[in-house]
Amino acid sequence: MFNRRKFITTSATGLAGVILLPAINSFANDSNQYIRKAAKFKLRFALASDIHYGQQGTDFELNTGNMVKWLNDDHAKNHLDMVIINGDLVHNRPDLLAEIKTKYLDKLNVPYQTIPGNHDFADAVVWKNVFNYEDRYTVEHGDIAFVLANTADTKGGYVCPDNSFIKASLDKFADKKIVFVILHIPPVKWMKNEGFLNCPETVDLLHAYPNVKAVFHGHDHLLDGVRYTDKLPHFFDSHIGGDWGTDYRGYRVVEVNEQNEIYTYQVNASQNPRLNSNKF
């Protein structure tokens, strides 16, 4: 796991960079509680992905219930402005999307956004029917904006995001201080045989706008750190459900302070195993 402190980039115009903080175990244990007291946040949000609700042979109900509890506990102790569920909410069962929304996601004590993954088998029609918005859309929070887009089709095939939509959104948000992009499947293969997309036009678009500060992905349950295209960071958040991936289950937190400094860290919510734990 990538868990060392790292400064990523700060533009010459004074726009924010991203600071990758060490992973922490959980907010549930006081000895591991992590609160940045030095700054007042203009935005604090969490990203979780890959719930795989309905996958046979897994404790998908327990995993989904745990996610809601972890995020609600985090919100109660530290405040979250928003939660983003970044794809693969269900496992090849789009008929279960309404169930996971009603039984679990609607019990989050914080506004949430969702985007399809390749196991959701969903398009704009399916997504709007369940969540009342389509599979590509934008969210604004003051001078911070989010661009979310689908990277799969209704049969689970991988597809590049709608670049015309991404360009139009980034043009619209050209005056925003910070833009975050949310794509379940990364648009680039860092290694030859990875199960990611090859979307050079998308990558070029993301690089063309200096206020795009980070891209967030799910999809690969074993990844919980950061990779780069040029100087642009792409962050991963492990997994909540499914039958493979990191030994623990967790989510990522992103914090933006009043000076537009961005901090992010991965939370080992299940504490199995503990991360960076030592006894002397």
TrEMBL record:
Calcineurin-like phosphoesterase domain location: 43-221
Signal peptide start-end: 1-28
InterPro entries on file: Calcineurin-like_PHP, Metallo-depent_PP-like, STPP_CPPED1
SUPFAM superfamilies cross-referenced by the UniProt entry: Metallo-dependent phosphatases (SSF56300)
Protein name, entry field: Metallophosphoesterase
PANTHER family, sorted: METALLOPHOSPHOESTERASE, CALCINEURIN SUPERFAMILY, SERINE_THREONINE-PROTEIN PHOSPHATASE CPPED1
Keyword Signal attached: yes
Swiss-Prot/TrEMBL keywords: Signal
Species whose genome carries this gene: Mucilaginibacter rigui
